[in-house]
Structure formats: C-alpha cells, structure tokens
Amino acid sequence: MSKPIVATTSLAGCFGCHMSILDIDERILQLIELVDFNKSPVDDIKEFTTMCDIGLIEGGCCNSENVHVLKDFRKNCKILVSVGECAIMGGLPALRNNIPIEECLHEAYLNGPSTKDANPDKILPNNEELPIILDKVYPCHEIVKIDYYLPGCPPRADLIWNALVALVTGDELKLPYEVVKFD
Amino acid sequence: MNDQVKFTIDGKQCTAEKNTNLVEAAKMNGIYIPTLCHLEGVKPAGSCRICNVKINGRFMTACTTLVVDGMVIESNTNEIQELRKIIIETLFVSGNHFCPACEKSGNCELQAMGYKYQMMVPRFPYEFEEKEVDAKTTKLYIDRNRCILCKRCVRSIKSKDGKSIFAIKGRGHKAVINIDHKLANQMTDEEAMHAMETCPVGSILRKERGYVDPIGSRKFDHKPIGSEIEETVTVK
Description:
heterodimer; A: alpha/beta; Rossmann fold; 5-stranded parallel beta sheet; two-stranded antiparallel ribbon; 31% helix; B: alpha+beta; Ubiquitin-like (UB roll); 10 strands; 17% strand
C-alpha cells in the first residue's frame, strides 16, 4: 500500500511552525517511513503533482497570493490542518487588522524611520506582478473549510507529531495538557 | 457554631457552612467551579458567567448563589462544560487576544480556561475591533484589547481613602475600563503589582516588567487552572 502524502505551506507566517515540524528530532526518520511529501518547502516541490492526503497550513491570509495558495491546497488535499496561531486567528500579522490599510502602507513605505528618507518619490508597491494586500489578515478557516486545528506559537513538536500519527494511523489523538498551548 | 448545610455537586455529598457562596463551598469540598470575574473576599458580580451551574435544574451563577440545605447542583456535565466553552470562545473573538505577544501569557486565567476546555479554535468569527491602550500613568498601562470586563479591578482596587482607581466608562458594547490617572500615579509599587495580579488577563500591566517568567515556569504551563483545588482532597 502506498504511503499517505503530505503537503505543507507557509502563508503569512514566519516559518516557525515548519521549524517546529523539524523539532520532532530523530522521529523525522519515522516520519519518512510513515508518509511521502509533495508540495512543501521541506522538499522544495513548488506545484502539486498528485492528490495529497494531508495539507498542513502555516500562517493566515494577508494577500491575494495566500488566498490562491490556500484554495489550491483545499483543492489538492483531502484533509487540511491549520497549524499555529497565525493560521487559526491571523496571529501577529493580524495586529494590523484594526488599522486602515492606507495607514499601514504609509507607515511601511513613506513615514517609517527606515523608509522616510529612502523613498523620495513616495512610491507604494503597485505592480500587477505583486500580490494585492488584503484589507485585513484572515484566519484560514474564514477562507476555506479547515478540518483540524493545532494551536501554539509554534505548536509543540509533540502536538504536530501526535496529530500526524493519529491522522495517518487512525488512532485516537492524545492531547496531554502540556502540548496544547497558545504561545 | 455556624449551621452546616448538606448539598450535592454532580452526585457527590458535600457540606459547608450556611451562607457560603457556592464557588467557595465547592472549593471546600475539593470541587473546582471555574471563575473569571470572581475574587475571594470581594462582593461577587456574576458578570462573566463561567461559573454557571444547574441548581435544582435551573441555570444560576455559582459565585452569586449562597448554598442552601438540600441543593442539587450539576457542574461538570457535558451540557455545562459546552456552555462554558462557548463563553470562553466568545471572549476570545470579541477582544484582540494575541497570546504569543502578551506579557501575561502562561499566567493568564482566560488562556488557562482555553487550555482547560481544549479550545482549538473559536467557533465564532473574530471581530478585531479597535480598542485603545492607555499608558498615561507612571506604573501601569491598560490594554483594552485584552479586557474581558470582569470588573475585578473596579470592585477591588481602591486608593488609601477608599476611592475607586478603575471604573467603567460607557454602556453595553461600548463599555470600557478607565483608569483615574491622578490616583493611579499615587499607587505604590506593591499596589501597582497587586493591580496587575488582580487582572485575570493581560489588560492591567505593570510597566517596565515585560516577560519576567520564562516559558516552563509560568503558572499554567504544567497544571490546569483549578487543579490545586481538586488535588487538596485527593491528598486528604
């Protein structure tokens, strides 16, 4: 029987959750026995080449590209998992959610201490090749259906491991108190 | 001697002194009824509703109810646990609770409730409403993004001559906690620290303190909130 296939991505995240996946240490040897990877920064496969069983999503949606990738994941993965606070609630990028987008762009490109004198033509990024920034940062489950959630910043390696093993083997997921944390 | 009354919580026989409120009475019998707004020794407000229990079949807040002989109380049933989880989720989406960026993380009672009830994601959409931060006083700042309007500070933090340092401004969904800058500036370091500890969340914070406790040695890192109450009885 072929192994279940996993895809992963980092949307508006910091790659901390992917680091936490690597934090399973030597269990990574068991992991490659257990699953195959498709589209993922782990193996640098850029596009889906087959239907996947599990998609791990890090980060929320802050621009049009994030939404595009997330919808692509929904289409190509049977089970989608929101991994980490940013995927679940927007996380730190969502700190801008109650500040008007114009004010954010002005602070970043016109008035910020590092850009104030460096941008004399007062250029704001506006090119069709660039993804369009959204009015606010959206949790993944407000864009597509998400099946499971793993909270944490990042989720503890044990939580990611326990969840992956439970999904692959069909055993019940064990959630000891110390693995479910919001920070 | 005071009169003792007999009652049951989830079928367990309990006794307590007459006129004890139910949260304290349960505690004396080794049963934890979760609370956020309740503070021992302060007049109960019943504002957070986390301590909802069913008494003789009716929902009531345990902190505002005095125990009476023969009461039949349900607390840890699936129905009530689910109700409490809904309240916690509501609090998480109505404020801006960025746990990873909060100084109170790990010592926060709201977060600890999220852990206790294993909230993986709130079932409601996030509101991300704009809330103001007030950092005008010398020792404290108020971050209303995290406030759950439990009124612990309003009810219990007073100046030396008995004046309220904190108060509610506005009504309904516009209600916010306000701080009296003049009175707050007269607070001693200990009083300011006490105010921070009174706040169940990270809304009242001591300035120039930041992240003091490392991850792993904070209040709710290893044990769920209320476990110390449930442990006392198993030891006996």
